[in-house]
Fold this protein.
Amino acid sequence: MRGPVVQRDKETKANSGEFWSFKQLNSLVMRQIICAGLGIYVDLRINDAGSIQKFGRLQMTVFKSIAIASALVAGTAATAQERFITIGTGGQTGVYFVVGQSICRLVNRGTADHNLKCTAPSTGGSIANINAIKAGDMDMGVAQSDWQYHAYNGTSEFEGKQFDKERAVFSVHSEPFTVVARADSGVSSFDELFGKRVNVGNPGSGQRATMDVVLNAMGKSDADFALASELKPAEQSAALGDNKVDAIIYTVGHPNGSIQEATSTVDAKLVDVNGPAIDKLVEENPYYAKATIPGGMYANNPDDTETFGVKATFVTSSDVPDEVVYTVVKAVFDNFDRFKGLHPAFADLKEEDMISAGLSAPLHPGAEKYYKERGWIQ
């Protein structure tokens, strides 16, 4: 039903000579639409000259209503155009949290141009992030390269739960599998952890899953520890300092705040993770590689620590629109020097490595588009 007609002034004739040009047409039509939404109908007519002839003088109150409605509709339209994306990270003391926060910082600097707004909350880590992306609860997330592989291929923890829509975006820093033990625990090698109190990591985290892989490779399980605690990264350093555990494990980029806390508050040593079982893991799995944590990086640890590790990778789903992924990738690589300065673990990153190293799922088309524009891939 048409709303009440705003009558033109009876003294004003059709040929009153008051015209609007086509330059004003869009604004005028929008006002007419707004008026219709308010239940007001404005009597307009297009004359032979191609301009709009306005019949009558509208009351000032109607103009005010139109102005208010225009502002409301414009505000609503602007809000409707904004898209919010969520990036899964890890514990607040870990580098994953910094990765997500850094990406969001760069994305949000350009919100006025692309209308994307980004948040990166703390999460349970790699597997939790992948499962959240699969469920549609998150758009993107950080995950260890091994769990990216297993999710896409439906192996290990993802057996029977394959995520074939998983897509790679880029990789970030290397992440050595790190063991820190109290000096008074008597632990100087990985084998000496058995029979001790060890924090194996929280369920859903990549470090916990990788610990399980290492234990399986050695023919061991959590039952071989005197205590297998499941503390989050933010809790484990304090537990080590308070003598609630003898050792903690962490798959993380270095330097790391949690490890720095652990080694500065108590006499603690980084422990080598090597031997035949580790050699076999690295040989049989392309997402693993030998790694060295440089000596002198942490207090009271002057010597290099030999271990193995993975890559931190950034993943998404094929369900996430190409333009969204493209915008995120562009925000990072168009501001690459700024990104590298946001954490010491990023300092040595190279663009050519990030678009391929540790990536086993197919590239998302949005990322692929940007890399082709830069001439990095064909």
Remarks:
- DSSP finds 14 helices and 15 strands in the chain.
- Residues 1-78 have pLDDT under 50 and may be disordered.
- The first helix runs from residue 25 to 37.
- The longest strand covers residues 166-182.
